[in-house]
Amino acid sequence: MSDSHCTTLIDLLESAALRWPDRPLLLGEPETVSYRDFLARVNGLAGLLADHGARHGDRIAAVLPNGPDLLALWLSLARLGAVLVPLNPALRFPEVESLLRDAGVSGLVSDARTLELYAAHLDLRLKMTVGAEKPEETLPGAVAFAAPPLPESPFRAGAGSDLSTILHTSGTTNRAKGAALTQTSYVWPAREFVRWMEIVPEDRFLVCLPLFHMAGQAFAIAAIAGGASLALVRKFSGHEFWPQVRRHGITVVRHLGEMLAVLLHQPESEDDRRHTLRAAYGGGARAELVEKFEARFGTTVVEGYGLTETNTVLRNEIGARRRGSIGRPPPYCEVRIAASKDQGVGEIQIRRNPVMMTGYVGGEPGLAQSCFEDGWFRTGDLGYRDADGYFYFVGREKDIIRRRGENIAPVHVEETLNRFPAVAHSAVVGVPDEVGGEEVKAFLVCRPGRTIDLAELIDWCHEQLAEFEIPRYFEICAELPGTSTHKINKGELRKAGTAGGFCFDRKSGQP
């Protein structure tokens, strides 16, 4: 089957297994498995799921750690045309209960303890446990996760337009919601990723981002689309990253948020360039961070942009990058800057297309409709486009700080603070002031072995920023709260108001 005829996730897997049956798909985390054997595992698991009632269109939740089991489950459900609802294991049941009910979840795959908890509140037709040999002894009707061999599977995914996942996504609403995504949502971007990153079957991917988020899922499917191999690890670790790269001969990684910064903060070593990693693709790395990473490690960093609801909608190509840009649209979508403000800055909007979500499951009533305006999806992100069609990210519209009539982009202030020699990384948020407006607060993490002299830092800010952009409050803290995708959790900083560090008020000159 040619790549152009691959319209479903199973098409991609079967095509790779036909062309490279003995090439490893999984690399020794915890076992090495060939494309042929992984396809057989997926087919067998699909048969087991079908035998226990899973059908086309069913929504099956999973509370599993990152790893081969979750990938096999997803593709097995895709074989049936069923829908995976993967959940972050760190979330508690009350946080996802409304989403599971709204989604009409009829089955759950998890460890025995989680399954017992969820089954007490939900009407589950399919109950499957990972790691328990005889789950029915503790939970009636439960079956053990397994992949019995099937010579040929009779189960076929219906079409690329069939739902594939419902992904829990955060937002401005209080009620949990999920983005409903089709198989096309993954297949088209995966095929394009192979092209723009020049992927070859000899490439080896490190998947350290969670498979319950878009970034991890899209990256894993891109590996399969290119016939490459992948190592699936539980989570990203700055200490374990380079040993994992060297152990598996990794050539491509997906970065997100502060991952590159974390790696740069590791002690320099004579081994910094003794590795096989040729490329890191992702989003959220600022231009100066990319420059430092490439100079130290000799790895090409390629920036792009996308959301849970959209997959990738802007990307640089590895052979045609523009520093500081988040790239240009791939062929399957159209992107614009709407409601342009000063200097061409406006909201990044995406025209409705087959890769985007079909809508939200759960959330506030009318939420999905409110996100579209005349067929364009409103991202809430601000950016601008240059004369050559390259886009640039400025910041979240809701993150813009309005201080005494002036609009301040936190990302701009953060970039300035991060250039100060003693600052490792920073987060800038708006906090209430005494007259009902907003003030600017900067949270700072110090570089190892350095001390942040606030007087020197404030002098630095006066040289680099307009007076209204300089933070009033500076808090020096040991670390900043993070999300499961390694972004700084600014929502938590706003809510708590502190990260437990020393705080200085520039206006009063007092702590």
Explain what this protein looks like in three dimensions:
This protein is an alpha/beta fold. Among the domains are: 33-182, Rossmann fold, CATH 3.40.50.980; 400-505, GMP Synthetase, Chain A, domain 3 (2-Layer Sandwich). The protein contains 14 helices and 27 strands. The strands form 7 sheets. The protein has a 6-stranded mixed β-sheet with strand order 11-10-12-13-14-15, with helices on both faces. It has a 5-stranded parallel β-sheet with strand order 4-3-5-6-7, with helices on both faces. Strands 16, 17, 19, 20 and 21 form a 5-stranded antiparallel β-sheet that branches. Helix 2 (35-51) packs across helix 3 and helix 6 (184-196) packs across helix 7 (214-225). The longest helix has 17 residues, at 35-51. It is globular and about 70 Å long. The mean pLDDT is 90.
Question: How far is the N terminus from the C terminus?
Answer: 67 Å
Number of helices: 14
Structural class: alpha/beta
- State the helical fraction: 25-40%
Which residue ranges are poorly predicted, with pLDDT under 50 across at least 5 consecutive positions? none
The radius of gyration over CA amounts to 23 Å
Q: Tell me, rounded to a whole number, the average pLDDT.
A: 90
CATH level 3 topology of the domain at 33-182: Rossmann fold
Characterize the biggest β-sheet.
6 strands, mixed
What percentage of amino acids are in beta strands? 25-35%
CATH class assignment of the domain at 33-182: Alpha Beta
Which outline best applies? globular
Number of strands: 27
| CATH architecture descriptor of the domain at 33-182 | 3-Layer(aba) Sandwich
Q: What topology, given as strand order, has the largest sheet?
A: 11-10-12-13-14-15
